Amino acid sequence: MQPGILHCLGSQASSFVLVSSDQVALPVPGSMAMPRRLDQLLLPLMASCFLLQALSVHAITRHYKFNVVMRNMTRLCSTKSILTVNGKFPGPTLYAREGDNVLVKVVNQASHNVTIHWHGVRQIRTGWYDGPAYITQCPIQPGSSFLYNFTVTGQRGTLLWHAHINWLRATVHGAIVILPKLGVPYPFPAPHKEAVVVLGEWWKADTETVINQAMQLGVGPNISDSHTINGHPGPMSDCASSQDGFNLDVENDKTYMLRIINAGLNDDLFFKIAGHGLTVVEVDAVYTKPYKTDILLITPGQTTNVLVTADQSAGRYLLSVSPFLDAPLQVDNKTGTATLHYANTVSATARLTLVKPPPQNATPIASKFSESLRSLNSKEYPANVPQTVDHSLFFTIGVGVNPCANCINGTRVVGTINNSTFVMPSTPILQARYYSIPGVFTEDFPATPPHKFNYTGSGPKNLQTMKGTRVYRLPYNASVQVILQDTGIISTESHPIHLHGFNFFVVGRGVGNYNPKTSPSTFNLIDPVERNTIGVPTGGWTAIRFRADNPGVWFMHCHFEVHTSWGLKMVFVVDNGKRPSETLIPPPKDLPQC
């Protein structure tokens, strides 16, 4: 008998082996009546083990159906109709294992055009399914559907999905949980249980109306009315009882893993739990060296997995989510709350231990957290940081103003990267690239700022931006370094920059203007944190590196939705490689039409 089978037979200790959260559990002989003959015993055991080994080697296909529908929701004593997936807010959690093929049929039963982006999923060679409207696909029109089809390759952890057109992701979002391959443990002690915690924002007004009015007037939009935890403002909000909101039930001395997601539109968020420490073990579906803290900073689009041990006395403890903003700008200052509840607490109305959120402008706390994260960089999970650079890019990012005769102040607020305000095309760039459709985009996105100035100072007074649908082209497998430099034309502020199609290494960050002669000496090329979204510090810079090993058309933009609406975005076009395994697949037959 094969040694692997003997090992498998000796490891069956429970009645069932759970294949996954949405698959049938496989019965193991311990739960059956025992046969009398030895071969009758061994044959079913061997069959079970062969099946388990096959499952651990061969991934499975998981099927989901997302019905996009309107639903009435009441928050803050006010009811409104919101766009949802399957009538849920937040939407359903998508579960998969590393290596699985995922099929999600999105059926649009609402009156809005819609797309879904699988935020952080690499989409190796499958850019048709990435989701940003007019970048990789036309929207799914009302009454239509589209089958997203992608494989989770080399990733495990927590990501998110969300609508990627206009401001619909305010309510159309949910978690992606990627479990390790069968038989592969976490690189940290296994938690007793896990929970998804989605942080967000809530507007009493319709968010599409909010941004449309702001764009028409050329000014900033109204801020949200509350922050939320799993869709609820919580027990400390206006018009709430002590029982309202999300409850996290725990048992004494057990350790739990929280998969925390910032699905908010426009706010960086602090997260705390009263009386409890947090150990960060993963960010953006990449394992980290364990980092102990009592507070998290999570920008829109980022995810953080933490371990929490229930080591306090019986009772109820407050969870809080509050904004971080260290610029002189308006922000929703409402704190969203939830409750951690010990199982041996006598009453649901037992005393609640409160938590004091940090100051809104707590820059030292935010900087310490961001600078403390490191990749695990183990033998199993190495940090393959590009040590040399083929394309060195310097991108200034920020907001400015352009003349606008019809706007309320005679000017329009615009977003800019290298003084270029991105104009969304009417034909998706990926289709234009694949079918060689002329006139959709130009390959002249500047590698460096066309105007040099004191970037973190006040800046030029009358610096108008260029408008256009410009892309930057990269050869396959090129190593790329991008310096992301904040600017202060209106005001310096932080920017959560998200890159589709890739993870990148955050090799450096600093305050003030990047200095090409001295700043690189501070780079970490050994174990920098690996992410898909990074917060560029207010009045500072961040250096990222990645390898362009994924052919296609890939969006890079600020994940503050207001900045994306204003044009703070650009596109990388990555060429095919020489092999079929390095080539973009053909478009699907049901790709939506504009």
From TrEMBL:
Q: Which leading EC class covers this enzyme?
A: oxidoreductase
Family assignment from sequence similarity? Belongs to the multicopper oxidase family.
CDD domains recorded for this chain?
CuRO_1_LCC_plant (cd13849), CuRO_2_LCC_plant (cd13875), CuRO_3_LCC_plant (cd13897)
Q: Which organism is it from?
A: Triticum urartu
The protein's matches in InterPro entries, at most eight in alphabetical order, are given as: Cu-oxidase-like_N, Cu-oxidase_2nd, Cu-oxidase_C, Cu-oxidase_fam, Cu_oxidase_CS, Cu_oxidase_Cu_BS, Cupredoxin, CuRO_1_LCC
Keyword Metal-binding belongs to the record: yes
Q: Name one GO molecular function term.
A: hydroquinone:oxygen oxidoreductase activity
Q: Where in the cell is it found?
A: Secreted, Extracellular space, Apoplast
Q: What is this protein called?
A: Laccase
Q: Where in this chain does the record put each Plastocyanin-like domain? A: 68-181, 194-344, 445-577
Q: Which UniProt keywords apply?
A: Apoplast, Copper, Lignin degradation, Metal-binding, Oxidoreductase, Repeat, Secreted
